[in-house]
Amino acid sequence: MEFPLDADVHCSDGRCGRSTYVILNPATEEVTHLVVQEKRPSRIERLVPAQLVANTAAEVVLLNCTREEFANLEPFNQTEFVYTDLPHHARDPSLTLLWPYVVPTKRVVDQRIRAIPPGDLAVRRGAQVRATDGRVGTVDEFVVDPDSGHITHLGMREGHVWGDRYVCIPVAEIDHIEERVVHLKIDRNAIAALPSIPVKRWGK
After folding, report:
1. Is-cis flag, bond preceding 26, omega within 30?
2. Domains along the chain?
3. Less CB within 10 Å around the terminal CB: N or C of the chain?
4. CA atoms within 13 A on the CB side of 195
């Protein structure tokens, strides 16, 4: 099963949003959640457990829940109001000599926090993929075994001098994963030898 990113997501009773991130456990190579951004006007991103993903296609994800159940899922981005030190220019004329220095002041600010389970990472489409000898492409999607939930392949969109192509990289060739970068164990020559897999996108 593929976990496509930037794809339409549908509940059992209609479209609910668009996929923005996959949440994965880099230690077990298992996808734990899919992040789905609600339709307008709310645009709230919600954490969808991988168990609720019923099926996927090239640019669509089907969830095994209703839109009402989806709306009750945990938000991915949460807002907390905290006191913090913010730079504040001194305004008292007697403190003019302090300029351009600033004096800290306590203010309440809103701080967005991502609800990522401990030990997991959020990876989105377009994250950089690096071989042992440099950057080779960007993350397009992850291929997951539907029975185990483990990642089997990384779908990479490769930008190279011989043109743009889609490459499926076995998970065994992934060294480690960060939020913005996937590091591979192989070099560019080894990637060039991997088979190119044609992918049909809806509307193309």
Report:
1. no
2. 2-73 (3.90.50.10), 78-114 (no CATH), 121-192 (2.30.30.240)
3. C
4. 5
Which helix (H) or strand (E) segment holds residue 193: the answer is none
Residue with tokens 């991988």: 50
Give alpha helix (H) positions in the chain: 67-71, 188-192
**Dist. CA 4–CA 143, nearest whole Å:** 8
Model confidence pLDDT, tens digit, residues 45-90 = 999 999 999 988 878 999 999 999 999 998 887 654 455 554 444 4
- What is the distance between the alpha carbons of residues 95 and 126, in angstroms, rounded to a whole number? 49
Which is more confidently placed, 129 or 3?
129
To the nearest whole number, what is the mean pLDDT of the chain?
Answer: 77
Give the single-character DSSP code of 171: G
Burial of 2 (0-12, 13-18, 19+ CB in 10 A): middle
Q: List pLDDT tens digits, range 123-177.
A: 888 889 999 999 998 888 888 777 777 788 888 887 654 456 778 888 889 888 8
φ, ψ for residue 191, nearest 5 deg: -70, -40
pTM: 0.62
